[in-house]
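Problem: given the chain below (93 residues), write out its structure.
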Amino acid sequence: MGSLVSDFHRNLLYGGIYLYPKDKRSTAGKLRLLYECAPLAYVAEQAGGLGSTGEANVLDIVPQDIHEKIPLVIGNKKDVLVANDFIQGKRTI
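Solution.
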């Protein structure tokens, strides 16, 4: 759908992960830590999943700015860990 909350809701119901990684144009990511990523990462962890930036757990990040942006990988814990490995270059296809 292209909407963070509705796409993540579908992942909660049916499984999978939601990815919004950083890229060359948005090197810090596009989603806001405090009012988009952290709340959904908390919901994911309560449901047995995980929220990550690809390198760190979202809930472990200490905000530096109220509108701080980060990349996001969120959903099924096993799938998020695999995505983290790809992002960090530890795994290839």
